[in-house]
Specification:
Elements lengths: L4 H21 L3 H8 L5 E4 L12 H10 L3 E8 L5 E3 L11 H4 L13 H4 L6 H6 L16 H9 L7 E6 L8 H11 L8 H4 L12 E5 L2 H10 L5 E5 L14 H4 L4 H6 L6 H13 L4 E4 L17 H9 L3 E4 L5 H10 L3 E4 L2 H7 L8 H7 L3
Parallel strand pairs: 1-2, 1-9, 2-4, 4-5, 5-6, 6-7, 7-8, 8-9
Antiparallel strand pairs: 2-3
The structure holds SN-glycerol-3-phosphate and calcium ion.
Calcium ion binds next to strand 2.
């Protein structure tokens, strides 16, 4: 007997419901991210909104926060007197006026300075000189920030609370930094358990169980982070070169004849497929929830590295039940390319552009948000 139209409609609804239930229970990167309280895809503001304001300063982090990013990314170091702070480079020359304030110590690593000394430095004026089209008088005199101050910023907007995406930078220079970080996050209430309902809060990822993600290039630091904070999601950063994935070619940049490093890095690739897979397998074996691979950028530049987000690489990583958060992408064509290749989140210097790309545009412009924050 042929089914009536009502029976057909009921059957169709049932099949749709079954399909949805199956999709929700299927293991996949989106479900994995959701379980960890991490948005999918995730917007990770690399050193803050560092295209539009001096990296790792209050201007960059407040801008990223108020634009609506999921995470504020930072590179963690420790001062001579034991204070945790954010700085990318090994020394202070590129992003501060250390050469004029401490000329005889200008090449010293940042950890040779006390926090009081670091706080005397101007971490904003270099940006105005380097990028006159994005310069703001109020950037001059911006300070290096402690982790405490970045936590304050992350908590400071009542309407949107991003999480923190913290890298232990050159961790071998800072024995015990993983433990220090745990103590600080614990003191500040950032390791408290939070329910999955909170993770879905409209206020942002900083309210949920994925509010902190820990990242490192160093195997030993990943192991220590796992020991100190087993419950916190971790990402093993990947690149091709010393201390990470072994390259196919051992020809150095100097020997290569390439005109710039981006062109050199773009040709770098893992020694073989198994070498790439070994690193992913290692990440998984140490409790990481994903990897943070490099990317080769269409227009090169000093953040363009080897292409480690080829579809087969992302597929292999997903097959192991891990996420892929790629660094560091700033242009729409590259956002599209890495999303097509299957990544689950992007580190970007241009938070406003990535939010637009994901159809989550900020309600105010970069200029307005900077102004609102006094810049
Ligand atoms: O942490 C991800 C990305 O930031 C790694 O590169 O050198 O900018 O810290 P880097
Ligand atoms: Ca970093």
């Amino acid at each position: 007997m042929p089914a009536t139209s009502t029976q057909s409609a009921l059957l169709l609804s049932l099949l749709l419901l079954l399909g949805q239930a199956q999709a929700a229970s299927e293991p996949g990167p989106a479900a994995l991210a959701t379980r960890a309280g991490i948005p999918h895809p995730a917007v990770i503001a690399h050193r803050g909104a560092s295209f539009d304001a001096p990296e790792s300063t209050a201007a960059a982090y407040k801008l990223a926060r108020d634009l609506g990013v999921d995470y504020l990314e930072l590179d963690l170091q420790r001062s001579k007197d034991g204070v945790l702070f954010a700085l990318h480079d090994n020394n202070l020359q590129r992003t501060t006026d250390v050469a004029s304030k401490f000329p005889e110590r200008k090449d010293s690593p940042a950890n040779a300075f006390t926090m009081a000394e670091l706080k005397t430095l101007d971490a904003g004026s270099w940006f105005n000189t380097a990028y006159p089209d994005r310069a703001q008088p109020a950037f001059a005199g911006l300070k290096i920030l402690t982790l405490d101050e970045i936590i304050d910023i992350a908590q400071g907007n009542p309407l949107h609370k991003p999480g923190l995406y913290i890298e232990t930078k050159e961790p071998k220079q800072f024995p015990g930094i993983e433990h220090d970080l745990k103590e600080k996050l614990q003191d500040r209430g950032w390791l408290s358990p939070a329910g999955s309902k909170l993770a879905k809060s409209a206020l942002g990822v900083g309210q949920g169980k994925g509010k902190v993600v820990l990242q490192t290039f160093e195997k030993s630091s990943l192991e220590l982070l796992q020991k100190e904070m087993p419950q916190v999601p971790k990402i093993l950063l990947l690149w091709v070169g010393e201390g990470s994935i072994e390259p196919k070619s051992t020809v150095s940049f100097a020997e290569s004849g390439e005109k710039d490093k981006a062109a050199y890095y773009a040709k770098q690739q893992p020694k073989d497929q198994a070498e790439f897979q070994r690193w992913v397998d290692y990440a998984k074996s140490q409790g990481a929830i994903g990897t943070g691979p490099s990317a080769a950028l269409t227009h090169g530049g000093d953040q363009s590295y080897a292409d480690l987000v080829q579809p087969w690489m992302n597929q292999y990583t997903h097959d192991q039940g891990l996420l892929v958060h790629v660094y560091t992408i700033d242009e729409a064509a590259d956002f599209q390319k890495v999303m097509d290749a299957g990544v689950d989140g992007i580190f970007t210097n241009r938070a406003s552009e990535l939010l637009k790309f994901y159809k989550r545009p900020a309600t105010a412009s970069v200029a307005q948000v900077l102004r609102n924050n006094g810049y």
